UniProtKB/TrEMBL annotation, chains A, B:
Pfam families: TetR_C_24 (PF17932), TetR_N (PF00440). Residues 10-70 form the HTH tetR-type domain. The keyword DNA-binding applies. SUPFAM superfamilies: Homeodomain-like, Tetracyclin repressor-like, C-terminal domain. Residues 33-52 bind DNA. Keywords: DNA-binding, Repressor, Transcription, Transcription regulation. GO terms for molecular function: DNA-binding transcription factor activity; transcription cis-regulatory region binding. InterPro entries: Homeodomain-like_sf, HTH-type_TetR-like_transc_reg, HTH_TetR, KstR2_TetR_C, Tet_transcr_reg_TetR-rel_C_sf. It comes from Paracoccus thiocyanatus. Coiled coil: none annotated. This is Transcriptional regulator, TetR family. The keyword Translocase does not apply.
DNA sequence: GTCTATATATTGATAGAC
DNA sequence: GTCTATCAATATATAGAC
Protein backbone atom coordinates (compact mmCIF):
# COMPACT_ATOMS: atom_id res chain seq x y z
CA UNK A 1 0.00 0.00 0.00
CA UNK A 2 3.03 2.29 -0.22
CA UNK A 3 2.28 5.43 -2.14
CA UNK A 4 4.36 8.00 -3.92
CA UNK A 5 4.32 11.69 -3.12
CA UNK A 6 1.11 13.57 -3.72
CA UNK A 7 -1.59 15.48 -1.88
CA UNK A 8 -4.86 13.85 -0.92
CA UNK A 9 -5.72 15.96 2.08
CA UNK A 10 -9.46 15.69 1.73
CA UNK A 11 -9.53 11.97 2.10
CA UNK A 12 -6.47 11.40 4.25
CA UNK A 13 -7.96 13.18 7.28
CA UNK A 14 -11.08 10.98 7.55
CA UNK A 15 -9.03 7.87 6.80
CA UNK A 16 -6.74 8.66 9.70
CA UNK A 17 -9.68 9.06 12.03
CA UNK A 18 -11.28 5.84 10.82
CA UNK A 19 -8.08 3.89 11.28
CA UNK A 20 -7.39 5.40 14.69
CA UNK A 21 -10.92 4.67 15.91
CA UNK A 22 -10.75 1.08 14.80
CA UNK A 23 -7.27 0.43 16.18
CA UNK A 24 -7.81 2.24 19.49
CA UNK A 25 -11.01 0.29 20.09
CA UNK A 26 -9.44 -3.01 19.19
CA UNK A 27 -6.12 -2.76 21.01
CA UNK A 28 -6.40 0.17 23.39
CA UNK A 29 -5.07 3.68 23.01
CA UNK A 30 -1.65 3.09 24.50
CA UNK A 31 -1.14 -0.15 22.60
CA UNK A 32 -1.50 1.49 19.21
CA UNK A 33 1.44 3.32 17.69
CA UNK A 34 1.29 6.23 15.33
CA UNK A 35 3.19 4.04 12.89
CA UNK A 36 0.38 1.47 12.94
CA UNK A 37 -2.23 4.12 12.21
CA UNK A 38 -0.13 5.53 9.40
CA UNK A 39 0.44 2.10 7.90
CA UNK A 40 -3.29 1.39 7.91
CA UNK A 41 -3.94 4.61 6.02
CA UNK A 42 -1.03 4.17 3.66
CA UNK A 43 1.08 7.18 4.66
CA UNK A 44 4.23 7.63 6.69
CA UNK A 45 4.11 8.26 10.42
CA UNK A 46 5.31 11.85 10.18
CA UNK A 47 2.35 12.74 7.94
CA UNK A 48 -0.09 12.20 10.80
CA UNK A 49 1.29 15.28 12.51
CA UNK A 50 -0.11 17.42 9.70
CA UNK A 51 -3.55 16.38 10.92
CA UNK A 52 -3.26 16.20 14.67
CA UNK A 53 -1.14 17.96 17.25
CA UNK A 54 -0.35 14.64 18.91
CA UNK A 55 -1.77 11.23 19.62
CA UNK A 56 -3.87 12.37 22.54
CA UNK A 57 -5.56 15.10 20.49
CA UNK A 58 -6.49 12.49 17.90
CA UNK A 59 -8.32 10.49 20.55
CA UNK A 60 -10.01 13.62 21.90
CA UNK A 61 -11.28 14.49 18.42
CA UNK A 62 -12.78 11.05 18.02
CA UNK A 63 -14.64 11.19 21.33
CA UNK A 64 -15.79 14.77 20.89
CA UNK A 65 -17.14 14.29 17.39
CA UNK A 66 -18.91 11.10 18.43
CA UNK A 67 -20.78 12.87 21.21
CA UNK A 68 -21.52 15.87 18.99
CA UNK A 69 -22.91 13.59 16.29
CA UNK A 70 -25.19 11.93 18.81
CA UNK A 71 -26.46 15.22 20.19
CA UNK A 72 -27.06 16.59 16.70
CA UNK A 73 -28.90 13.47 15.56
CA UNK A 74 -31.23 13.15 18.54
CA UNK A 75 -34.53 14.91 17.78
CA UNK A 76 -36.98 15.12 20.65
CA UNK A 77 -40.44 16.64 20.74
CA UNK A 78 -41.39 17.63 24.29
CA UNK A 79 -45.02 18.04 23.31
CA UNK A 80 -45.42 14.32 22.68
CA UNK A 81 -46.38 11.82 25.40
CA UNK A 82 -43.36 10.91 27.52
CA UNK A 83 -43.71 7.20 26.84
CA UNK A 84 -43.51 7.81 23.09
CA UNK A 85 -40.43 9.93 23.59
CA UNK A 86 -38.86 7.25 25.75
CA UNK A 87 -39.54 4.63 23.12
CA UNK A 88 -37.92 6.86 20.50
CA UNK A 89 -34.87 7.45 22.68
CA UNK A 90 -34.45 3.73 23.22
CA UNK A 91 -34.59 3.02 19.51
CA UNK A 92 -32.22 5.86 18.75
CA UNK A 93 -29.69 4.86 21.39
CA UNK A 94 -29.62 1.18 20.51
CA UNK A 95 -29.44 1.84 16.79
CA UNK A 96 -26.63 4.38 16.98
CA UNK A 97 -24.73 2.26 19.49
CA UNK A 98 -24.87 -0.76 17.20
CA UNK A 99 -23.94 1.35 14.18
CA UNK A 100 -20.83 2.69 15.90
CA UNK A 101 -19.76 0.17 18.51
CA UNK A 102 -16.13 1.25 18.32
CA UNK A 103 -16.86 4.88 19.09
CA UNK A 104 -19.16 3.83 21.94
CA UNK A 105 -16.53 1.56 23.42
CA UNK A 106 -13.86 4.26 23.19
CA UNK A 107 -16.13 6.82 24.80
CA UNK A 108 -16.50 4.69 27.88
CA UNK A 109 -13.05 3.26 27.97
CA UNK A 110 -10.47 5.83 27.01
CA UNK A 111 -11.52 8.97 28.84
CA UNK A 112 -8.60 8.29 31.15
CA UNK A 113 -6.13 8.95 28.36
CA UNK A 114 -7.32 12.50 27.77
CA UNK A 115 -5.90 15.64 29.29
CA UNK A 116 -7.99 17.08 32.11
CA UNK A 117 -9.27 19.81 29.81
CA UNK A 118 -10.34 17.47 27.03
CA UNK A 119 -11.86 15.07 29.51
CA UNK A 120 -13.98 17.81 31.05
CA UNK A 121 -15.20 18.81 27.61
CA UNK A 122 -16.27 15.28 26.70
CA UNK A 123 -17.88 14.81 30.10
CA UNK A 124 -19.98 17.93 29.54
CA UNK A 125 -21.18 16.62 26.19
CA UNK A 126 -22.06 13.29 27.71
CA UNK A 127 -23.91 15.05 30.48
CA UNK A 128 -26.06 16.86 27.92
CA UNK A 129 -26.92 13.51 26.37
CA UNK A 130 -27.87 12.06 29.74
CA UNK A 131 -29.99 15.12 30.44
CA UNK A 132 -31.92 14.48 27.24
CA UNK A 133 -33.06 11.15 28.67
CA UNK A 134 -33.67 12.47 32.15
CA UNK A 135 -35.93 15.20 30.74
CA UNK A 136 -38.17 12.46 29.38
CA UNK A 137 -38.35 10.66 32.72
CA UNK A 138 -39.16 13.92 34.51
CA UNK A 139 -41.93 14.59 32.01
CA UNK A 140 -43.28 11.08 32.53
CA UNK A 141 -43.42 11.62 36.26
CA UNK A 142 -45.22 14.95 35.79
CA UNK A 143 -47.70 13.34 33.40
CA UNK A 144 -48.30 10.52 35.81
CA UNK A 145 -47.51 7.94 33.11
CA UNK A 146 -44.25 6.84 34.78
CA UNK A 147 -43.18 6.11 38.34
CA UNK A 148 -39.52 7.07 38.67
CA UNK A 149 -38.59 8.09 42.21
CA UNK A 150 -34.99 9.06 41.32
CA UNK A 151 -34.79 10.26 37.73
CA UNK A 152 -31.03 10.84 37.81
CA UNK A 153 -30.26 7.31 38.98
CA UNK A 154 -32.79 5.83 36.58
CA UNK A 155 -31.13 7.75 33.74
CA UNK A 156 -27.73 6.32 34.53
CA UNK A 157 -29.18 2.84 34.97
CA UNK A 158 -31.08 2.90 31.68
CA UNK A 159 -28.18 4.26 29.64
CA UNK A 160 -25.87 1.58 31.05
CA UNK A 161 -28.44 -1.08 30.24
CA UNK A 162 -28.98 0.12 26.67
CA UNK A 163 -25.32 0.70 25.92
CA UNK A 164 -24.63 -2.82 27.15
CA UNK A 165 -26.01 -4.22 23.91
CA UNK A 166 -22.62 -3.48 22.34
CA UNK A 167 -21.07 -6.03 24.71
CA UNK A 168 -22.89 -9.01 23.32
CA UNK A 169 -24.70 -8.08 20.08
CA UNK A 170 -23.26 -9.76 17.02
CA UNK A 171 -24.40 -9.12 13.47
CA UNK A 172 -26.20 -12.18 12.20
CA UNK A 173 -26.63 -13.61 15.67
CA UNK A 174 -29.71 -15.04 17.30
CA UNK A 175 -31.61 -11.76 17.29
CA UNK A 176 -32.03 -9.00 14.77
CA UNK A 177 -31.97 -5.42 15.86
CA UNK A 178 -35.74 -4.89 15.84
CA UNK A 179 -36.19 -7.86 18.12
CA UNK A 180 -33.55 -6.51 20.50
CA UNK A 181 -35.30 -3.15 20.62
CA UNK A 182 -38.61 -4.85 21.34
CA UNK A 183 -37.23 -6.88 24.22
CA UNK A 184 -35.43 -3.91 25.74
CA UNK A 185 -38.56 -1.82 25.40
CA UNK A 186 -40.43 -4.34 27.56
CA UNK A 187 -37.69 -4.13 30.16
CA UNK A 188 -37.49 -0.33 30.13
CA UNK A 189 -41.24 0.16 30.21
CA UNK A 190 -41.43 -2.04 33.26
CA UNK A 191 -38.48 -0.34 34.93
CA UNK A 192 -40.11 3.09 34.73
CA UNK A 193 -43.36 1.72 36.08
CA UNK A 194 -45.43 2.19 32.94
CA UNK B 1 10.82 3.37 48.94
CA UNK B 2 14.04 1.69 47.75
CA UNK B 3 14.80 -1.41 49.72
CA UNK B 4 17.91 -3.46 50.35
CA UNK B 5 18.21 -7.11 49.50
CA UNK B 6 16.02 -9.54 51.38
CA UNK B 7 13.21 -11.99 50.82
CA UNK B 8 9.61 -11.06 51.43
CA UNK B 9 7.97 -13.44 49.01
CA UNK B 10 4.77 -13.87 50.99
CA UNK B 11 3.85 -10.25 50.81
CA UNK B 12 5.51 -9.23 47.56
CA UNK B 13 3.19 -11.39 45.43
CA UNK B 14 -0.05 -9.80 46.62
CA UNK B 15 1.51 -6.35 46.51
CA UNK B 16 2.40 -6.84 42.86
CA UNK B 17 -1.14 -7.88 42.06
CA UNK B 18 -2.60 -4.92 43.95
CA UNK B 19 -0.31 -2.45 42.22
CA UNK B 20 -0.94 -3.97 38.79
CA UNK B 21 -4.72 -3.94 39.28
CA UNK B 22 -4.72 -0.32 40.33
CA UNK B 23 -2.38 0.86 37.58
CA UNK B 24 -3.98 -1.17 34.78
CA UNK B 25 -7.41 0.16 35.72
CA UNK B 26 -6.22 3.73 35.96
CA UNK B 27 -4.05 3.99 32.86
CA UNK B 28 -4.80 0.95 30.74
CA UNK B 29 -2.85 -2.26 30.37
CA UNK B 30 -0.59 -1.13 27.55
CA UNK B 31 0.11 2.22 29.14
CA UNK B 32 1.58 0.68 32.29
CA UNK B 33 5.17 -0.51 32.28
CA UNK B 34 6.59 -3.31 34.37
CA UNK B 35 8.94 -0.70 35.83
CA UNK B 36 5.98 1.34 37.08
CA UNK B 37 4.46 -1.68 38.78
CA UNK B 38 7.79 -2.56 40.36
CA UNK B 39 8.32 1.00 41.59
CA UNK B 40 4.89 1.01 43.20
CA UNK B 41 5.73 -2.18 45.08
CA UNK B 42 9.23 -1.09 45.97
CA UNK B 43 11.22 -3.73 44.05
CA UNK B 44 13.20 -3.71 40.84
CA UNK B 45 11.58 -4.57 37.53
CA UNK B 46 13.40 -7.87 37.12
CA UNK B 47 11.89 -9.14 40.35
CA UNK B 48 8.40 -9.19 38.86
CA UNK B 49 9.43 -12.06 36.62
CA UNK B 50 9.81 -14.27 39.66
CA UNK B 51 6.06 -13.91 40.12
CA UNK B 52 4.65 -13.88 36.63
CA UNK B 53 5.68 -15.35 33.30
CA UNK B 54 5.08 -12.05 31.57
CA UNK B 55 2.92 -8.96 31.68
CA UNK B 56 -0.03 -10.58 29.95
CA UNK B 57 -0.15 -13.46 32.44
CA UNK B 58 -0.28 -10.93 35.25
CA UNK B 59 -3.43 -9.42 33.75
CA UNK B 60 -4.95 -12.84 33.17
CA UNK B 61 -4.39 -13.77 36.83
CA UNK B 62 -6.16 -10.62 37.96
CA UNK B 63 -9.21 -11.25 35.79
CA UNK B 64 -9.40 -14.95 36.55
CA UNK B 65 -9.15 -14.56 40.32
CA UNK B 66 -11.72 -11.79 40.27
CA UNK B 67 -14.27 -13.98 38.53
CA UNK B 68 -13.44 -16.96 40.73
CA UNK B 69 -13.89 -14.84 43.86
CA UNK B 70 -17.30 -13.73 42.64
CA UNK B 71 -18.44 -17.25 41.83
CA UNK B 72 -17.21 -18.56 45.18
CA UNK B 73 -18.89 -15.77 47.14
CA UNK B 74 -22.31 -15.99 45.49
CA UNK B 75 -24.56 -18.26 47.53
CA UNK B 76 -27.94 -19.03 46.03
CA UNK B 77 -30.78 -21.13 47.39
CA UNK B 78 -32.98 -22.42 44.54
CA UNK B 79 -35.70 -23.41 47.00
CA UNK B 80 -36.44 -19.80 47.89
CA UNK B 81 -38.90 -17.62 45.96
CA UNK B 82 -37.31 -16.28 42.78
CA UNK B 83 -37.97 -12.66 43.71
CA UNK B 84 -36.06 -13.08 46.97
CA UNK B 85 -33.19 -14.64 45.09
CA UNK B 86 -33.19 -11.82 42.55
CA UNK B 87 -33.12 -9.25 45.32
CA UNK B 88 -30.16 -11.06 46.89
CA UNK B 89 -28.31 -11.19 43.58
CA UNK B 90 -28.83 -7.49 43.06
CA UNK B 91 -27.46 -6.65 46.50
CA UNK B 92 -24.53 -9.00 46.01
CA UNK B 93 -23.62 -7.68 42.59
CA UNK B 94 -23.82 -4.00 43.49
CA UNK B 95 -21.93 -4.49 46.73
CA UNK B 96 -19.09 -6.50 45.25
CA UNK B 97 -18.88 -4.18 42.23
CA UNK B 98 -18.52 -1.13 44.45
CA UNK B 99 -16.03 -2.91 46.69
CA UNK B 100 -13.79 -3.76 43.73
CA UNK B 101 -14.44 -1.19 41.02
CA UNK B 102 -10.97 -1.60 39.54
CA UNK B 103 -11.31 -5.34 39.04
CA UNK B 104 -14.77 -4.84 37.53
CA UNK B 105 -13.49 -2.22 35.13
CA UNK B 106 -10.59 -4.39 34.06
CA UNK B 107 -12.82 -7.39 33.52
CA UNK B 108 -14.90 -5.50 31.00
CA UNK B 109 -12.21 -3.48 29.30
CA UNK B 110 -9.03 -5.49 29.06
CA UNK B 111 -10.15 -8.85 27.75
CA UNK B 112 -8.70 -7.81 24.43
CA UNK B 113 -5.18 -7.87 25.85
CA UNK B 114 -5.35 -11.55 26.76
CA UNK B 115 -4.20 -14.46 24.66
CA UNK B 116 -7.02 -16.35 23.00
CA UNK B 117 -6.66 -19.16 25.52
CA UNK B 118 -6.81 -16.92 28.56
CA UNK B 119 -9.65 -14.93 27.07
CA UNK B 120 -11.71 -18.06 26.54
CA UNK B 121 -11.09 -19.12 30.12
CA UNK B 122 -12.28 -15.78 31.54
CA UNK B 123 -15.28 -15.75 29.20
CA UNK B 124 -16.31 -19.18 30.49
CA UNK B 125 -16.16 -17.96 34.09
CA UNK B 126 -18.20 -14.90 33.23
CA UNK B 127 -20.71 -17.07 31.46
CA UNK B 128 -21.17 -19.11 34.65
CA UNK B 129 -21.84 -15.91 36.56
CA UNK B 130 -24.42 -14.78 34.00
CA UNK B 131 -26.04 -18.19 34.16
CA UNK B 132 -26.47 -17.77 37.91
CA UNK B 133 -28.68 -14.75 37.26
CA UNK B 134 -30.50 -16.31 34.34
CA UNK B 135 -31.40 -19.33 36.49
CA UNK B 136 -33.27 -16.98 38.80
CA UNK B 137 -35.20 -15.37 35.93
CA UNK B 138 -36.10 -18.79 34.56
CA UNK B 139 -37.34 -19.84 37.98
CA UNK B 140 -39.38 -16.65 38.25
CA UNK B 141 -41.05 -17.36 34.93
CA UNK B 142 -41.82 -20.90 36.00
CA UNK B 143 -43.27 -19.68 39.28
CA UNK B 144 -45.34 -17.09 37.51
CA UNK B 145 -43.91 -14.30 39.67
CA UNK B 146 -41.97 -12.73 36.81
CA UNK B 147 -42.69 -11.97 33.16
CA UNK B 148 -39.45 -12.29 31.23
CA UNK B 149 -39.97 -13.28 27.60
CA UNK B 150 -36.27 -13.56 26.80
CA UNK B 151 -34.31 -14.56 29.89
CA UNK B 152 -30.93 -14.45 28.15
CA UNK B 153 -31.36 -10.91 26.92
CA UNK B 154 -32.80 -9.80 30.24
CA UNK B 155 -29.77 -11.29 31.97
CA UNK B 156 -27.36 -9.30 29.85
CA UNK B 157 -29.44 -6.16 30.23
CA UNK B 158 -29.68 -6.42 34.02
CA UNK B 159 -25.99 -7.16 34.53
CA UNK B 160 -25.03 -4.19 32.36
CA UNK B 161 -27.39 -2.00 34.32
CA UNK B 162 -26.13 -3.11 37.71
CA UNK B 163 -22.46 -3.02 36.76
CA UNK B 164 -23.01 0.51 35.50
CA UNK B 165 -23.05 1.80 39.07
CA UNK B 166 -19.25 1.73 38.98
CA UNK B 167 -19.36 4.41 36.26
CA UNK B 168 -20.88 7.09 38.43
CA UNK B 169 -20.91 5.98 42.09
CA UNK B 170 -18.59 8.03 44.27
CA UNK B 171 -17.93 7.33 47.94
CA UNK B 172 -19.50 10.07 50.00
CA UNK B 173 -21.65 11.29 47.12
CA UNK B 174 -25.34 12.05 47.08
CA UNK B 175 -26.43 8.50 47.78
CA UNK B 176 -25.21 5.82 50.12
CA UNK B 177 -25.01 2.25 48.96
CA UNK B 178 -28.25 1.08 50.60
CA UNK B 179 -30.15 3.82 48.87
CA UNK B 180 -28.61 2.86 45.53
CA UNK B 181 -29.63 -0.75 46.05
CA UNK B 182 -33.17 0.31 46.93
CA UNK B 183 -33.57 2.44 43.80
CA UNK B 184 -32.12 -0.24 41.53
CA UNK B 185 -34.37 -2.83 43.12
CA UNK B 186 -37.40 -0.77 42.10
CA UNK B 187 -36.08 -0.60 38.55
CA UNK B 188 -35.23 -4.29 38.33
CA UNK B 189 -38.48 -5.45 39.87
CA UNK B 190 -40.36 -3.43 37.29
CA UNK B 191 -38.20 -4.66 34.44
CA UNK B 192 -38.93 -8.31 35.20
CA UNK B 193 -42.63 -7.59 35.45
CA UNK B 194 -43.01 -8.30 39.16
C1' DG C 1 1.04 17.38 1.73
C1' DT C 2 4.02 13.76 2.11
C1' DC C 3 8.36 11.85 2.33
C1' DT C 4 12.95 10.18 4.63
C1' DA C 5 15.84 10.29 8.40
C1' DT C 6 16.71 10.74 13.04
C1' DA C 7 16.92 12.37 18.20
C1' DT C 8 15.66 10.86 22.37
C1' DA C 9 13.26 8.04 25.49
C1' DT C 10 11.20 3.96 27.02
C1' DT C 11 9.80 -0.62 26.68
C1' DG C 12 9.58 -6.07 27.90
C1' DA C 13 12.46 -9.36 29.10
C1' DT C 14 16.89 -11.86 30.42
C1' DA C 15 21.62 -13.04 32.67
C1' DG C 16 24.24 -13.43 36.41
C1' DA C 17 25.92 -11.58 41.05
C1' DC C 18 24.70 -11.70 45.87
C1' DG D 1 14.23 -13.64 46.34
C1' DT D 2 16.10 -9.55 44.86
C1' DC D 3 19.44 -6.86 42.81
C1' DT D 4 22.23 -4.56 38.84
C1' DA D 5 23.13 -4.21 34.17
C1' DT D 6 21.92 -4.65 29.65
C1' DC D 7 20.01 -6.18 24.97
C1' DA D 8 17.09 -5.45 21.25
C1' DA D 9 12.95 -3.52 19.90
C1' DT D 10 9.87 0.08 19.64
C1' DA D 11 7.89 4.47 20.87
C1' DT D 12 6.61 9.72 20.02
C1' DA D 13 7.77 13.54 17.82
C1' DT D 14 10.59 16.72 14.84
C1' DA D 15 13.60 18.64 10.83
C1' DG D 16 14.23 19.36 6.35
C1' DA D 17 14.02 17.65 1.40
C1' DC D 18 10.83 17.40 -2.47
Amino acid sequence: MARTHGSRAEITGPLIRDAARRLFARHGFAAVSMRQIAAEVGVQAGTLYSYTADKQALLADLLRSHMEDLLAAWQDDPSRPALDRLRAFLGFHIQTSLERPEAVFLSYMELRNLTAENRAQIAALRRRYEDALEAILIAGEAEGTMAVPDTRLATMALIAMLTGVTNWYREGGRLDQDRVVAVYWDLVRGAVGA
